[in-house]
Amino acid sequence: MHWLRLTLVSYSRYIDDLVGFLEKFEPLSVSILPNTKEPVFADNEDAQKYWEQTSISALLPKDIEMDIVLACARNLVGTENIIDHHIEIVRDENWIETHKQETLSMVFGDGRLCHLS
Fold it and tell me: What does CATH list as the number for 2-92?
């Protein structure tokens, strides 16, 4: 099976709304990543939750009407608040095995094996 990865870049204040919207389409996954380099600290409940420009990627079923999804996302937060978007086809694979292949192993002084991503 193939999937479509929709990546939206928006401002921090719209991320929760966009994630909630994308979750209605039952994505395989949703990822939230920085699109800018400023640090985000979670030292109290008033702390900034996301980066000023944040990227959201959702892995959606291949038969989804992406034009409709994009139009609805723009209507939700305003066209001017979707800074960028990308759509790509993702082949289905054994995600666990792929991650294991991309993970580096390191041995430390006491001989224990540690896996690093």
Answer: 3.30.70.120
